[in-house]
Amino acid sequence: MGKISTILFDCDNTLVLSEELAFEGCADLINEIAAAKNVPLQEPFTGDKLITEFVGQNFRGMMVSLQQRYKFDMTPEELDDYVRREEDVVIAKLKEKLVPCVGVEPVLESLATSKKYHLAVVSSSALRRVKASIEKVGQDKYFGDDVFSAATSLPKPTSKPDPAIYLHAMKTLGKTADECVAVEDSKSGTLSGTRAGIKVIGYVGPYSEQEKAHMEKVLTETGAVVIMQHWSEFDSIMEKIESGSL
């Protein structure tokens, strides 16, 4: 086990409580697309329904899944246009209402002060949205330019669970997988980090009490080495990972 030098944070519902706000805006747009494409939905999509089905995927990833499921087509130009519109809708919501995840601020502050680790953000969401999110809550000072987006930072846009964005981030930062620890809250994010060879801390803080037990199981099954209920547990978890007991 190499010495841990780098912590890679997912953004949505790991650093900031954005998923609910984002999926609200996203649902409106998907219902509009369904109407335009004559897709027979049993009932309109809601933010909650989208979260259940697509948490951890970006909008482009959702669109690919929905085209397969409902057998409709979209030109690359149409898809790009909708991706841009979704970004605008979601960013407007985030700028209005976004707050950080409970307990994450003291952890980031302490990590920044100690300078023990290199800190970076690795997200499926578009770079403009990730930057708007961390700027809104004042977290941008912890990461500088080390913010990576599967939707924007790669030659070919993708989404977690594809490990491409983690591999790209490590290559850019000059780090190996055994030097890194990732923090993820979703199945697709945990798979992405694990497939890149990184130890993943599965964070379930933002889930409702009913969903927590289920998500603990999902994240453990997809490779998380430990489950974190609250950010106050982060230091002790890192000690265990560093000592090799996790």
TrEMBL record:
InterPro entries registered for this protein in UniProt: CbbY-like (IPR044999), HAD-like_sf (IPR036412), HAD-SF_hydro_IA (IPR006439), HAD_sf (IPR023214), PGP-like_dom2 (IPR023198)
Single GO MF annotation: phosphatase activity
Cross-referenced Gene3D superfamilies: HAD superfamily/HAD-like, Putative phosphatase, domain 2
Pfam families on file: Hydrolase
Identification of the protein by name: HAD-like domain-containing protein
Organism whose genome encodes this protein: Apodospora peruviana
